[in-house]
Write a structure and sequence with these properties.
Elements: E1 5-11, E2 18-24, E3 27-31, E4 33-35, E5 37-38, H1 48-53, E6 59-61, H2 63-68, H3 72-77, H4 81-85, E7 91-93, H5 97-103, E8 105-109, E9 114-117, E10 124-127, H6 129-139, E11 143-145, E12 156-157, H7 164-169, E13 190-191, H8 196-216, E14 224-229, H9 235-245, E15 252-255, H10 264-274, E16 284-286, H11 292-300, E17 305-307, H12 310-315, E18 319-320, E19 327-328, H13 348-351, H14 356-364, H15 369-395, H16 399-404
Helix pairs in contact: 6-8, 8-9, 9-10, 14-15
Length: 410
């Protein structure tokens, strides 16, 4: 019996988009799907039932953070991550590789694996493909990811006139921020291209590590292992990597190493090139993406699954997503604004009658209800986006979608 089933229910005649359903031991979810990110075994500040009420059918847990605290052995003793966290639906865990390369203080990386220091207590961790598989087997998610080598795209270079502090703290800003003229974010630091030799090494290492992950995966009957295609913005490397990972008959495949600073046009080029190289009958997952227009672009290229921290991270910072563009709810213009965050939204925050004025007050007063309300709204916003995308594919008609989602059209 397979750990995962995938059925394509509808295909779009104008693109490679498709709508379907994935079945796991903990239930099913519709695709294209957006997965909220529960880094430490929870969607920050939200009860599992509230997350489900936004329309989320599957969530993501983070192997790196759960490995460090509380440890996968404890989670296994408590019945697995879903039972322990009280999320009863499908769940995916990443491999920990991306966080190791972005958060860990790496001491050594070689063909064996990565040795790094915990960002919590400085303890030494030896993370290998076999270790990542053991941790994910103990966490018990329905979908688990192969351990891959995900090097940074390149060193960040500060834009002229940007201080080091601004460069370190600046968050990605959507193009539609132009609709909030009083907000003047620091220019985003640019990113150099990855070293070609390091990138080729990362691809080869990812392929070798995938072989080891497949061999050491102890629960293939109830946990679906997805392989990851790496290669940066080098399309030849992407093709070579995709050709080799798809030699494994795995339940699903992912595109990794995008949305790391390469820019929208390059991301689009990589996704549109790589997605069609993956098996047509298997779910395709674009990791760590993204803004609404990123998701729409990838869906039309044939991608089925997405995750990103944007809805909840931005929600905790008073930044709300709407169909017309983002709202910065700390701005003074909302001091006496009686409208809900988005009058067209049916989330608990908007449908519950909480005004922009009140939400702004909560943030200014440091009250925890503010981040909760905006996080709930943002998660619902993303699920409404996926609902409308699935409807457009099902009906083979994008006219209403294009009318109601200008933010996704760029």
């Amino acid at each position: 019996m397979s750990a995962l089933g995938f059925e394509i229910l509808h295909r779009d005649s104008t693109s490679l988009a498709r709508a379907g359903r994935v079945t796991t031991p903990h239930g099913s979810f519709d695709t294209p799907a957006f997965m909220p990110v529960g880094t430490q075994g929870t969607i920050k500040g939200l009860m599992p039932d509230d997350v489900a009420a936004t329309g989320a059918q599957i969530v993501l847990g983070n192997t790196y953070h759960l490995l460090l605290r509380p440890g996968s052995e404890l989670v296994a003793r408590m019945g697995g991550l879903q039972a322990w966290s009280r999320w009863g639906g499908p769940m995916l865990t990443d491999s920990g590789g991306f966080q190791v390369f972005s958060l860990g203080h790496i001491n050594r990386i070689d063909d064996h694996g990565v040795v790094f220091r915990s960002h919590l207590d400085g303890s030494r961790i030896d993370l290998t493909p076999e270790h990542s598989m053991r941790v994910q087997n103990e966490l018990g998610a329905d979908i688990i990811m192969a351990f891959d080598d995900c090097p940074p795209l390149g060193p960040k270079r500060r834009a002229p006139g940007v201080s080091e502090e601004e460069a370190d703290t600046a968050e990605p800003v959507a193009d539609s921020d132009q609709r909030e003229p009083e907000l003047e974010p620091a220019p985003e630091p640019t990113v150099d291209h990855a070293d070609p030799l390091r990138l080729a090494q990362a691809v080869e290492r990812t392929l070798v590590w995938l072989d080891r992950c497949v061999k050491s995966h102890a629960r293939p009957q109830d946990q679906a292992l997805f392989a990851i295609v790496q290669g940066g913005t080098d399309l030849e490397l992407r093709s070579a990597c995709a050709a080799r990972v798809t030699q494994h008959d795995l339940p699903g495949f992912a595109i990794g190493g995008v949305a790391v600073g390469e820019g929208y046009d390059q991301m689009r080029q990589v996704v549109e090139h790589t997605a069609p190289l993956l098996p047509l009958e298997k779910p395709r997952y674009l990791m760590g993406v993204g803004y609404e227009r990123d998701i729409l672009m990838a869906v039309r290229a044939g991608v089925d699954m997405f995750d990103c921290v944007l809805p909840t991270r931005n929600g905790r910072n008073a930044n709300a997503f709407t169909r017309q563009g983002p709202m910065r709810l700390r701005n003074a213009r909302y001091v006496d604004d009686p409208l809900p965050i988005d009058p067209d939204c049916d989330c608990q925050a908007c449908g519950g009658g909480f005004s922009r004025s009140y939400v702004r007050h909560l943030f200014m007063a440091g009250e925890m209800l503010g981040p909760i309300l905006v996080s709930l709204h943002n998660l619902r916003h993303y699920q409404r986006l996926m609902l409308d995308i699935r409807a457009a594919i099902r009906d083979n008609d994008w006219s209403l979608f294009n009318l109601h989602w200008p933010v996704a059209l760029g």
